[in-house]
């Protein structure tokens, strides 16, 4: 079966920063944060303190994954330029997203460089309180903050632009599904992908259903299925609770608006990547046709638009080239 990993992270050099400070590499895939929290970010054999392009291509090939969407996150630090280099070198394998901190003085200059010069047509908003912008900035509303409004008005000039959003779980102030609904209505020319199926938690499926019904009102909102196992703290393959959550997503959003993704490398430290790449096939939630859509065709349609690939493929860095 053809597969696109719609949620993968490359890490050339760690530049992590979130609410618990910065991470410091310890080698052997492990890091320690400024508050003393120690964790493994990279599975054994993937890299001592990075997860680079060649290693990613090897992992994908070993698991029958033909393409990947390279997203960004504060967990590793924004890897915008390295992701652009990977997508430029392998346009048949990667499409890349960039991230920006809207609180930075040069935020709009950063957005303009990545969109106009480097040809990005996907932006990742890592706003979660637990691992993103709202963990180290004041609280903001994604649909009512003038800094974000300026950015959205800019990218809205490019129909087909994709915005992927990680807004954390319902216990975080960053959890704003209603803001995504407002933005999708305001900018119908953009595609929105809510990461992690809006963060389903055991015992909270009624709340998830309410959020998904809200998101389902807008045809330009989809959800990826990355890291559901981590969120539910589930390691019992093929993940019975995750199956319940995805079945609910299928019933409310439909199979054409769900995208498989892994959220590796970190997610692959809890459950092996081959399991993350195969669990939906073994779960038997979808028909063969719908499974192809979830595993491949939906990501191809949303992220790998011909115009978006062309924009990045034909871009050049005026500061280097």
From TrEMBL:
GO terms for molecular function: carboxy-lyase activity; hydrolase activity. It comes from the Bacteria. InterPro entries: ACMSD, Amidohydro-rel, Metal_Hydrolase. The keyword Lyase applies. It comes from Lactobacillus porci. This is Amidohydrolase. Keywords: Hydrolase, Lyase. Gene3D superfamilies: Metal-dependent hydrolases. Residues 4-304 form the Amidohydrolase-related domain.
């Amino acid at each position: 079966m053809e597969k696109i990993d719609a949620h993968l992270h490359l890490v050339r050099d760690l530049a992590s920063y979130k609410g618990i400070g910065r991470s410091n590499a310890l080698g052997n895939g492990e890091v320690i944060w400024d508050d003393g929290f120690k964790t493994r970010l990279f599975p054994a054999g993937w890299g001592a303190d990075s997860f680079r392009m060649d290693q990613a291509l090897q992992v994908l090939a070993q698991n029958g994954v033909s393409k990947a969407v390279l997203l960004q996150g504060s967990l590793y630090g924004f890897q915008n330029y390295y992701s652009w280099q990977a997508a430029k070198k392998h346009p048949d394998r990667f499409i890349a997203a960039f991230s920006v901190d809207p609180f930075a003085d040069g935020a709009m200059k950063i957005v303009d460089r990545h969109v106009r010069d480097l040809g990005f047509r996907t932006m990742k908003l890592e706003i979660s309180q637990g691992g993103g912008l709202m963990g180290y900035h004041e609280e903001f509303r994604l649909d009512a903050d003038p800094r974000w409004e300026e950015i959205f008005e800019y990218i809205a000039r490019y129909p087909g632009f994709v915005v992927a959003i990680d807004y954390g779980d319902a216990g975080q102030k960053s959890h704003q599904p209603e803001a995504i609904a407002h933005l999708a209505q305001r900018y119908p020319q953009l595609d929105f992908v809510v990461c992690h199926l809006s963060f389903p938690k055991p015992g909270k499926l009624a709340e998830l259903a309410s959020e998904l019904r809200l998101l389902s009102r807008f045809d330009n909102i989809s959800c990826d299925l990355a890291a559901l196992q981590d969120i539910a703290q589930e390691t019992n393959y093929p993940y019975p609770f995750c199956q319940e959550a995805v079945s609910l997503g299928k019933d409310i959003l439909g199979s054409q608006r769900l995208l498989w993704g892994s959220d590796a490398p970190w997610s692959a430290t809890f459950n092996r990547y081959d399991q993350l790449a195969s669990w939906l096939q073994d779960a038997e939630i979808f028909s063969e046709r719908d499974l192809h859509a979830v595993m491949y065709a939906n990501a191809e349609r949303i992220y790998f638009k011909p115009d978006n690939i062309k924009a990045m493929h034909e871009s050049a860095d005026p500061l280097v080239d």
